[in-house]
């Protein structure tokens, strides 16, 4: 059995009268690709934001490798090994691909940003190795601002990996990408997760991507988990078909 990386128990959050998340519990193991799916407003992003410290839960516990991280600040959670990618890419457009990743490595190694200029050569080889890993080794010197969207997503993945995360949170990582690129990005993520023993939790509206790459699925509806299982089990679940898959999602996303 793989090591449990993340353990979530009875997580809840409401906004005024709206119960965004009510009593959600699950685990993610090293190397596992776990998809959190559900209709718009189901509470997926709220869950993510409670896991990385952006939102403080009303109740429940989050532990990373057995250490409780509930209520810690995002920066601390990140330091403890939780990486994330964003729906809107977060690279610096005027800096090159290599520089963006070098900066993430500098940050991971807690050097000061003020040292950036003299440190320009630092972590050059590590950045190159990470960028090779995500298939961006040939574009090291291009400014991020001119990259194709799919390539930018790969750089973003390399930036998340610079922190050597044990858990990677990806909230709709393939939003805005062409279908072929989506499959490629998640294939790459799955390969790296397996090689490095990273637990990956991702949300995704494209069911082709989910069923192709998730080892296991959690289905959230109105803040509550209504199903959990393998892609085949979830696909066959009556309640899931009713609230989510039945609405035309099962054939090719949106
Ligand atoms: N900051 C907030 N203030 C008030 N209500 C909020 C806030 N954030 C989320 N909500 C509400 O909580 C519920 C869950 O929202 P959430 O964004 O987590 O859903 P989601 O599953 O990520 O949806 P989507 O698929 O559209 O991204 C929704 O009813 C939403 O309107
Ligand atoms: Mg969301």
Overview of the molecule:
With 254 residues, the chain is of the alpha/beta class. Helices cover 34% and strands 25% of the residues. The strands form two sheets. A six-stranded mixed β-sheet has the order 6-7-8-3-9-10, with helices on both faces. The protein has a four-stranded antiparallel β-sheet with strand order 2-1-4-5, with helices on one face. Strand 4 and strand 5 form a beta hairpin. The longest helix is centred in the last third of the chain and has 18 residues. Adenosine-5'-triphosphate binds next to strand 2 and helix 1. The site of adenosine-5'-triphosphate has 11 residues, from strand 2 and helix 1.
Summarize it.
With 254 residues, the chain is of the alpha/beta class. The chain has helices spanning 44-51, 74-79, 97-108, 124-133, 149-161, 179-196, 207-213, 231-236, 238-243, and strands spanning 4-15, 18-29, 33-37, 59-64, 67-68, 82-85, 167-171, 199-203, 216-221, 224-229.
Bound molecules: adenosine-5'-triphosphate, magnesium ion
How many helices does DSSP assign?
9
Can you write the helix and strand succession as a string?
EEEHEEHEHHHEHEHEEHH
Biggest sheet descriptor: 6 strands, mixed
How much helix, percentage-wise, in residues? 25-40%
Instruction: Report the β-strand fraction as a percent range.
Output: 15-25%
**What is the CA-based Rg, rounded?**
18 Å
Strand arrangement, major sheet: 6-7-8-3-9-10
Can you count the beta strands?
10
Structural class: alpha/beta
Identify the quaternary structure here: single chain
Overall pLDDT confidence = 88
Shape: globular
Low-confidence stretches: 249-254
**What's the N-to-C terminus distance?**
35 Å
């Amino acid at each position: 059995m793989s090591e449990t990386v993340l353990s979530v128990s009875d997580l809840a959050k409401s906004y005024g009268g709206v119960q965004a998340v009510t009593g959600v519990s699950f685990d993610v193991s090293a190397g596992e690709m776990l998809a959190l799916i559900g209709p718009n407003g189901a509470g997926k992003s709220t869950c993510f934001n409670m896991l990385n410290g952006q939102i403080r839960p009303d109740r429940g516990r989050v532990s990373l490798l057995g250490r409780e991280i509930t209520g810690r600040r995002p920066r601390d959670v990140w330091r403890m090994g939780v990486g994330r990618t964003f729906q809107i890419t977060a690279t610096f457009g005027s800096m090159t691909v290599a520089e963006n990743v070098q900066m993430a490595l500098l940050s991971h190694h807690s050097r000061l940003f003020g040292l950036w200029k003299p440190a320009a050569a630092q972590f050059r080889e590590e950045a190159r190795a990470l960028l090779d890993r995500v298939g961006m080794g040939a574009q090291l010197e291009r400014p991020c601002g001119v990259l194709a969207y799919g390539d930018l997503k790969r750089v973003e993945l390399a930036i998340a990996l610079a922190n050597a995360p044990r858990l990677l949170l990806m909230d709709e990582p393939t939003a805005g990408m062409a279908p072929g690129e989506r499959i490629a990005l998640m294939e790459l993520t799955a390969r790296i997760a397996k090689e490095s023993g990273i637990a990956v939790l991702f949300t995704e509206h494209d069911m082709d991507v989910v069923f192709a790459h998730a080892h296991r699925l959690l289905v959230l509806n109105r803040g509550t988990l209504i199903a959990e299982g393998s892609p085949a089990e979830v696909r066959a679940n009556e309640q899931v078909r009713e609230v989510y898959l039945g609405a035309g999602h099962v054939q090719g996303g949106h």
